[in-house]
Fold this sequence. Notes:
Layout: H1 3-15, H2 17-27, E1 48-52, E2 55-58, E3 63-66, H3 69-72, H4 81-91, H5 102-114, E4 119-123, H6 126-141, E5 145-149, E6 173-174, E7 177-178, H7 189-193, E8 195-198, H8 203-212, E9 217-222, H9 238-248, E10 252-256, H10 260-263, H11 268-273, E11 279-282, E12 293-297, H12 299-306, H13 320-333, H14 336-360, E13 365-369, E14 372-376, H15 385-389, H16 393-405, E15 408-409, E16 419-420, H17 427-461, H18 468-475
Parallel strand pairs: 3-15, 5-8, 5-9, 9-10, 10-11
Antiparallel strand pairs: 1-2, 2-3, 4-12, 6-7, 11-12, 13-14, 14-16
Helix pairs in contact: 1-16, 4-13, 5-13, 6-12, 8-9, 14-17, 16-17, 17-18
The structure holds pyridoxal-5'-phosphate.
Residues 71, 125-127, 130, 153-155, 223, 256, 258-259, 283 line the site of pyridoxal-5'-phosphate (PLP).
Amino acid sequence: MYEDLRKELETFERRTPKSAQAHKRNLKRIPLGVASNYRAYDPYPIFVKEGQGSHFRDLDGNDYLDHNLCFGALMAGHCHPAVMKAVEKRLHTGTMFGMPHDMEWELAEEICQRFPIEMLRFGSSGTEATMHAVRLARAATGRDKILKFEGAYHGLHDSALVSVNPKPAEGYGDIHAPNPVPAGLGVPKAAVANLVIASFNDLSSVELRFKQNPGAIAAIILEPILMNVGLCIPERGFLNGLREIATKNGALLIFDEVKTGAKLGWGGASEYFGVKPDMICLAKSIGGGFPLAAFGTHRPVMDLISQHKVFHGGTYNTNPVSMAAGLAMFREVLTRESYAHVNKLSKKLVEGYRKTVAKVGLQAYVASAGANGALMLYPREIRNYRDWLEIDIDLWRHYWFGMVNRGIMAQPYWWDEQWTISVQHTEADIDNHLAAFEDVAPALAKAQQERAAEAVAHLQKSRSAICPAMILQIMSVRSSSLI
Ligand SMILES: Cc1ncc(COP(=O)(O)O)c(C=O)c1O
């Protein structure tokens, strides 16, 4: 670990002793001391006390500008007044019935007006939405295999927990025909065998998979923007190409819009990119801070549920509290005006970052789409998961802890994530964010240059011939200490 990173970590530990203590206590009863593996990181995660608007406070009373926003689930920001008002009213009139009510029709109408689907069912999490979408696709086609992209995350069920973050040592295979790699123990071999993996932004790898599995692939599932690798934008023609390949092969195209649905724009990815999927999965930000999800598609496919051919249920489905929050989101929060506001802030943030990156000579770029963005510590734009693997993790940690120590949670912890700008963020918030980055960036650039020079010196010492391509490679070498 290099000196400037060590100093940031020391500052972090000095500022957050109560989080350290709380984590230590949690570890006694809860694996990793956290409720989701994604929340664990070294030396320990920040424990939160309360949030309001675009900010939250930790147990030690430190205030943070929040661009984590529950891994992007809070486009509304914390405690949005419209959501709170709707929810408070419901809290006094019954929170669960397990019976139908009139908000179901209202919210279904709202969603079907924005997204190109005819019917939908509700659930509580993104995992549920993608799980049911995949099952429906299998039922509709009579096929078992699902094509997903290497590095994509679609939740925690067996059909999704494959090739999420595979390593070369796990035998991830050729980039044009990656091997399916289970993301941990307990995923049945049969589930792995039913996953066909392709490379994002590589239509030929998708074509190849269909050729190798004739009449066997039920659906292509993807995030229209790959968001498990920072932010990886689809190249021109990629989504249209997938649309064509799916149609040609009788497979369904599933857009997992758990992240993009509410954050990319008013009509989600299909509106943003002008490509119509067959199925859409929604969750996270549509609930305004409450557990709410939906999956939907054409009527003939949803009729498989109507005809009792495909089973769908759930005790918490359409509980009135989440539904009230969802209605407030679609009617009062996720408005065209809100998207205009967030887009304006996003432009300001991105331009500010770019200016600083250029000024300090950092080898990095800024990717952004809708409410999301990320500082990508790469010499050139990534196209897929394997490009993303090549990152200097210590440098990324330097960025993240440096920002946190200056009161800015620039994004969730982990270099596969991205920032979210909520409707409650302000111009002043963005100014503060940019000021913190300006403060951290020179040290980042210095560390990056020194680490590259050290690597070059090391290579020269070992008498290897150096060419520019190798230097680039060295600069983006992945630290293995945390993987
Ligand atoms: C694209 C995508 N799909 C599905 C999921 C799973 O959602 P949940 O955590 O609500 O189960 C996530 C969660 O991060 C996601 O980002």
